[in-house]
Amino acid sequence: MQTTRRPLSLASRAAVTVLIIAAATGVAHGSFSLYWAAGGNWLVATLGHQLVSDFAGRRWLLFPVGVVKIGFAVFPLALAVWDRPWPRPGRLVCWLGAVVLMVWGGINTVTGNFVLIGVIDPSGGYDRDGMIGHAWLWDPLFLLWGVALTAGLLLSRRHVQQPSQA
Predict the structure, then answer these.
(1) Membrane-spanning residues where (predicted)?
(2) Strands (E) located in 27-141
């Protein structure tokens, strides 16, 4: 017996669209972690000298970081494309991730830009390349990932129709 897949609703299509954006930003973030773990150096200066020196000789630690980022990036999209009610624990993990991504990305993007324009003046100075990388690339990607994930979660909610009052 062949089952016919019903077309996605407008809200479901919108949810999938923003979850594709969330997945793409998360996969980009995770892919760079894997690239650096494998010894790549492109954009490594945008991480900041302190972070680079902390991982010197231990870049392999970025492999599990990259795998986890990519896994969490595609998980919500896979659930949405599956087009069934999401398991409650899955939604809870996604909501927690969305909040962490938005708070982390938002605070660090704003703080980094405040440092770059001189509103905040770190007493010990700062690594300009690293600050630019975090203020304009890595933390805004976290923020975008979190905002898109939040939108996808909101759009993918299953609404229960209430019986009309007679």
Answers:
(1) 60-82, 94-120, 135-155
(2) none
